[in-house]
Amino acid sequence: MITSTTGPQPADFADVRATNLAVVLRFVREHAPCSRADIAASTGLNKATVSSLVADLIDRRLVRETGLTENRVGRPATMLVLDGSPYAAIGVEINVDYVSAVATGLAGERLLTWRRSFAGGSSVSQDVAAVAAVIRRVVGRMAKEERQILGLAVAVPGLVDVQGVVRFAPNLGWRDADISGDLAKALRDPGFSVQVDNDANLAALAEQRFGSHAGAADLVYLTGEIGVGAGVILDGRLRRGARGYSGELGHVQLDPDGPPCRCGRRGCLESMAGIAAVLRREPSPAEIQVEIEEVVRSARAGEAATLKILESVGRGLGRGVAVIANLLNPEVVILGGYYVPLAPWLLPAVRDEIAGRVLAPGGCEVVASALAHDAAALGGAARVLDSVDSGHLPGGASRLT
Length: 401
Fold this sequence. Notes:
Distance between the termini: 37 Å
Protein name: ROK family protein
Radius of gyration: 23 Å
Order of helices and strands: HEHHEEEEEHEEEEHEHEEEHHHHEHEH
Shape: globular
Helix content: 40-55%
InterPro entries: ATPase_NBD, HTH_MarR-typ, ROK, WH-like_DNA-bd_sf, WH_DNA-bd_sf
Family: Belongs to the ROK (NagC/XylR) family.
Pfam families: MarR_2 (PF12802), ROK (PF00480)
Structural class: alpha/beta
Largest sheet: 5 strands, mixed
Strand order of the largest sheet: 6-5-4-7-11
């Protein structure tokens, strides 16, 4: 007779321990300085288990002791804080005209921030070679500081499936490109994970962990690059959709009689409120930064034509924000990329537009990102740190290693 068991199976001891190590590490990150007793009282783990887990984390140099505190009932307690001094997480953003790289420590402290010009779109192999050269320099710098790389996550402006394959990145000319695998080969199997995700998704993770609304359970990040994409955090988790293609807000049609869009339709959000709408033409990637700076100068000087364009773009953007606010009811919508320097002129029109379109009481808060152009790369580092929080621990056995 053949039988099958569909109920829950007994958990492997190593898996349970890895889970508990991650629970303790997250608690220290969120509540440091804290004591072993604090951890036991808040997590429900018994004191002996907490002591064993903390000893393990100290051995891995993920946590360290930092003296005693007497500001409590009973005996003084030895306090714990994050260590992580031997480790680094790397995030990289590949865009049409630049590559940016960020390295952070375990607590999110910046160790390195680089931005390099990049002429993307020649071929996948050439683009990967150029990006790999930047990554090797970052890894080399961290090696000089005697830091082990926890992982690398790369942000790409395009459709990235749940396996990390870039299915379509129109501004880079990529289709069905295994950028993760290609980078790992170009780096000669570096000994750490190489992940790839959509730029808006990773920027949303950066905002949730490091931004002005860090800790928000429900937020949406809008890219302000050549395209307009959305990274969506709901109930504290990044939402990618069934195949990984969520967030293509730029091609939501707002006006069937509106301006033509690159996708072939008319009146998409991107055509009405993207950077091309600001500049009144399809921009050259190499010239966007200079042209946006000129728009900012004109707006500061009070030039009527520029102010009129920015108000129109702000209203189009407000209509798009209202769609996502009514659909998802986020706590905040964060404008990133080139929207950041234009925010003083865009935000009044955005807020005015959504005031009459968002149905939820209290409306929807809309702000400019404090992370600016570093958001997607910083989000790559955040994704690596999230994997550590989930149990992928360096320096010993864990359930994901």
